[in-house]
Amino acid sequence: MTTKLLAAGALPLALAACSAATPLPDTSFVVAPAAPTVAARQTGYVNPIRNYTARPVVDPADWRQSNQSQEGL
Asked: Is residue 7 within a helix (H) or strand (E), and if so which, with residue range?
């Protein structure tokens, strides 16, 4: 019983291993630029915390007052 199952599983694998390999797809478009005449845009460093505003922890306040204090930010 197990030898029949083993043979049934091994036969397709053996036949597939003997077949010719399929050619790989053409991937030259991956490295080619979309528009060769247009230069790539240069990127510069952008500070991720340039607009950071320190907000210290304070005691709970009236929510209306908190909203008004941050209204102009």
From this structure: helix 2-18
Instruction: Return the structure tokens found at 24.
Output: 């790989």
pLDDT digits (tens, 9 = 90+) for 12-57: 888 877 778 888 888 777 777 677 777 777 888 989 999 998 888 8
Domain boundaries, the chain: 1-71
Instruction: Label each residue of the chain as H, E or C.
Output: CHHHHHHHHHHHHHHHHHCCCCCCCCCHHHHCCCCCCCCCCCCCCCCCCCCCCCCCCCCCCCHHHHHHHCCCC
Residue 72, CB-side half-sphere exposure with 13 Å CA sphere: 2
Distance of CA 3 to the CA centre of its chain: 46
- The structure tokens listed for 33 are 């630029």
